[in-house]
Design goal:
mainly alpha; single chain; 2 helices
């Protein structure tokens, strides 16, 4: 009877050790998978953030170029207006110079505004596409990580 009790105690001890080993292995694998999932999510976020920053920088450069071009054109029109005004001899020459100047300035501003609007719309679409693609990639990676974790869990249960 004492031997049966000792055998039972040893078997119980071995089962407890196996259960503890199983639990530790499972917890370690789950922790590793969680860390991998977090790493993949952070990597995806960093890639999307970098791409969006690059797109934003590109658009900022485009805006700077457009505003510089607008400034140059309006300044050129202003200088030309000043030269024509200095050569005007009759009152109607003054009126005509003023009218031409205002029409040219309005046209330059309208053209630049239209171009700026088109570029802004294109930039917004690019940023939206980049963000959407990043979110989709992050979701795909998270789904794969969950599937791997489920497979590991099933494998552990099968081994037990």
């Amino acid at each position: 009877m004492a031997r049966d009790t000792a055998d039972f105690a040893q078997q119980s001890s071995e089962r407890a050790m196996q259960a503890a080993t199983f639990g530790l292995t499972w917890a370690r694998e789950m922790a590793e998978e969680s860390l991998n999932q977090g790493k993949h999510a952070l990597d995806s976020f960093m890639k999307v953030s970098k791409k969006m920053a690059e797109d934003f920088e590109s658009q900022a450069n485009s805006i700077r170029e457009q505003t510089t071009a607008l400034t140059e054109k309006t300044w050129s029109n202003t200088l030309e207006y000043g030269q024509k005004l200095a050569r005007a001899k009759e009152p109607q020459d003054f009126v005509q110079c003023q009218s031409e100047f205002m029409a040219r300035q309005a046209q330059v501003i309208a053209d630049q505004t239209r171009e700026f609007g088109q570029n802004f719309q294109r930039a917004a679409q690019e940023l939206m596409h980049t963000a959407s693609a990043g979110i989709a990639e992050g979701g795909r990676q998270a789904e794969q990580a969950v599937q791997r974790a489920e497979q590991a869990s099933k494998r552990q249960r099968a081994e037990a």
